[in-house]
């Protein structure tokens, strides 16, 4: 996914903006069960390599784009759009192209005009020292962000080990020297993958052959709502019927888990609980606030998540 500032203007004016962006990105990824594999923040645009098991890329992007825009506009006393139209995205075949796209993203800081003219050694030094990218987290464990999943990227190089990380680093140097490209392999401005993968996607979405495909839909099966309610009931010690009717932290947990692991929308959850969809949205928002302040609630949520993923 990539998004550029309106009229190519900066979307980050200082490091405080970049840190805020990453904080919002992390929260949005957790809220929408999105896996972040790689990122880079440039002056007037950003690139993300994301995985959406629930097929909810549009919701994820809308949440963090709106939240960051609101922050940016408040801070700089401005109004209106921060970004240039809708974000651009393309679907990639994970096993075959994940690492390649990640490396392409990590090479971005060396592609700016003033840096591209410099000797290779200087470009590499700049790349590995560039703070606003997930690349430093691959080469140095101390620089990792908790919201980034490095393991899949490194599988091709022997895993998330010292030798695997060193091989990735060497490949970055080789890619920079040879000029790694991916855009010529993208079909219909939407898909990057093998012929078989492209055919499979086209069969699923024949009407979208020549359009951007922000999500393919529900890629993974969601757990049945009954199973999820059973897990929440057992962990919290709350009867199932009370999860749906009684106000409190257990119901807020149920709202969040049904959304993230059950694939239900806020209106669908609201109908189950006899409340308006906005009540569900507010309930999930209050839960996120409580989780950040109350270790006991955080513990309940993590235990439920672990059982849902099992």
Layout of helices and strands, plus pairs?
Blueprint: E1 2-4, H1 15-31, E2 35-41, E3 45-51, H2 57-75, E4 91-92, H3 94-106, H4 113-116, H5 120-129, H6 135-139, H7 151-155, H8 162-178, E5 191-192, H9 195-204, H10 225-236, H11 240-245, H12 249-260, H13 266-273, H14 277-291, H15 295-309
Parallel strand pairs: 4-5
Antiparallel strand pairs: 1-3, 2-3
Give a description of the structure.
The chain is mainly alpha-helical. Helix content is 54%, strand content 7%. It has 15 helices and 5 strands. The strands form 2 sheets. Strands 1-3-2 form a 3-stranded antiparallel beta sheet, with helices on both faces. Strands 4-5 form a two-stranded parallel sheet. It is globular. The chain starts with a strand and ends with a helix.
List keywords for this structure.
15 helices, 54% helix, mainly alpha, two-stranded parallel sheet, single chain, globular, 3-stranded antiparallel beta sheet
Mean pLDDT: 87
Q: Would you report the number of β strands?
A: 5
Order of adjacent strands in the largest pleated sheet = 1-3-2
Give the low-confidence spans: 208-221
Spatial shape: globular
* Binned strand content: 5-15%
Q: How far is the first residue's CA from the last residue's CA?
A: 29 Å
The helix-and-strand class reads mainly alpha
Cα-atom Rg, whole angstroms?
Answer: 21 Å
Largest sheet: number of strands, sense, barrel closure: 3 strands, antiparallel
Number of helices: 15
Element-by-element helix/strand order: EHEEHEHHHHHHEHHHHHHH
Percent helix, as a range, is 40-55%
